[in-house]
Amino acid sequence: MNPTVFAYKSIQRMTSSSKLLNFKRVSSLPVRSCVSNNFFLSKTSLININGVSVKRIPNRYVHDLPKKKEWGKGKGPISWKTLFITLGIGGVFLVGMQYVKKEKQLAIDKQRRRELGKAAIGGKFDLIDHTGQPKSSEDFFGNWLLIYFGFTHCPDICPEEIEKMITVVEELNKTKPKLPNIIPLFITVDPERDNVEAVAKYVKEFSPDLLGLTGSKEKIHEVTKAFRVYYSAGPKDVDDDYIVDHTIITYLVDPEGQFIDYYGQTKTAEQVVNAITIQMLKYKSAKNQSWF
Hints:
The chain is of the alpha+beta class and about 290 residues long. The protein is built from 6 helices and 11 strands. One of its GO terms (biological process) is intracellular copper ion homeostasis.
């Protein structure tokens, strides 16, 4: 029991007895109101009981204790101002990270182009399409191009690669949001046999979107040299038939006529679609100067 409470009750019992009628007056009673080991009440009052003055502990002493702060009432540890400042700093940090990431990606792309020999791959060409109309590289400016070099007498590899190229184009056209149009081109490496009529008949077997190009030996040599395409006609058989050994690569060219990327025979249509989509988005981002 609290010593103060014990003393107070003892005095009450004593004053109720007749023995306290001649009790000597006490000017003050050194009673210390102990609430805890570290906190003492200072607000006490004197009461007179049958001529005896004692210190009374106020009933309100509990309210004088420091109250434990309840979070959620009034100001908490995080105010709206602090929250907005934190979000602002986070937003600035995020934009900064996006900028650094963009610059890093641009540097990687630039390095990749240097490694691929961008300046040495691709260039101008002047050929004839499968309708007999002259077609130059400038006619395709503003369009993405997928270019495959082959020949119409190819038994298996060329048909497979052209079908894959058409599948890629069709899948890209289905993409939402819609990506820019891309034109598939077939350029022959066998101008001796692949004239306009032969090329026209060949491309119709795959897709109405496929554009076939042919030309003189000199013009074919120029375009294959520009794109670093290897080709070599093999020995002729008794029927004057022969196979042309050539590079099996599909080239991606941007709307400015610049070589961007290439895809070998081992790449699946899905992989090519994903790669082209990324290249298109990078191109758009670089032109718009926007990260969002």
